[in-house]
Amino acid sequence: MEITDPRDLRHHNVSVGPKSPSNQHSLRLVIQHNWHGDGSYRSRYRLIVYGDRQAYRDFDSLEQLLGVLRTAEISVNVTAISSPDPQAPSVVLSQSIQVGDSQLSILGLEYK
């Protein structure tokens, strides 16, 4: 099942257990919605982390992005995810997180 409206996330739980205390980073996590394509636009999501440096990764769907967050044991407030603006790129979630190097690796982000 693909999630097309973030309000449908009420039934998806991405909150998981405690994180490893080693090599922790205090970061800002941002999920951005973008439209890509020539002629026939498609929806994509970008996961961005900010701190001393910036790293990002693109996803084809919000469901795919949330699955990776779940695997990395990163809790996000899915009820705070706003509906994307169909006319322009938009930030659909922004929150502070504490993550370890292994979690960033699972996300496919190199933050060094």
3D structure, described in words:
There is one protein chain. The protein is of the alpha+beta class and 112 residues long. The chain has 2 helices and 4 strands. It has helices at residues 62-71, 101-107; strands at 24-36, 42-50, 54-59, 90-100. The protein has a 4-stranded antiparallel beta sheet. A hairpin with a 3-residue loop joins strand 2 (42-50) and strand 3. It is globular, with a radius of gyration of 14 Å. Residues 10-20 have low confidence and may be disordered.
Keywords:
112 residues, alpha+beta, 2 helices
Instruction: For the largest sheet, list the strands in their spatial order.
Output: 3-2-1-4
Low-confidence stretches are: 10-20
Percent of residues in beta strands: 25-35%
Percent range of helical residues: 10-25%
Distance between the termini: 35 Å
Give the overall pLDDT as a whole number. 78
**Count of DSSP-assigned helices:** 2
Structural class: alpha+beta
Order of helices and strands: EEEHEH
Report the count of strand segments.
Answer: 4
Give me the Rg, rounded: 14 Å
Short synopsis of the structure:
The protein has 112 residues and is an alpha+beta fold.
Question: Helices, strands, pairings?
Answer:
Blueprint: E1 24-36, E2 42-50, E3 54-59, H1 62-71, E4 90-100, H2 101-107
Antiparallel strand pairs: 1-2, 1-4, 2-3
